[in-house]
Amino acid sequence: MRKKKRVYTTHRQPIDPSSSLLTFDQVAAVLNVTKGTIYNLVRRGQLDAVKLPLGRCTRIRKASLDKLIADAEPADIAPAS
Description:
Elements: E1 21-22, H1 24-31, H2 35-43, E2 49-52, E3 57-61, H3 62-71
Antiparallel strand pairs: 1-3, 2-3
């Protein structure tokens, strides 16, 4: 008998404005990037992440995300001619 393959899904959770910690999926949705990009931002120290004592549970501080967005340089996009 064959084993059934496990299917992993990503659940897009709505962001609770009162929450101070966000999942990697939530941050990726806000920035419209992949979860891998969020991991890279954390690794480079551009986003602060905290590891919770609940097993392999890591979250990103909302204040860190807000600072990243506030510090971003405005895009210099010329209008189409």
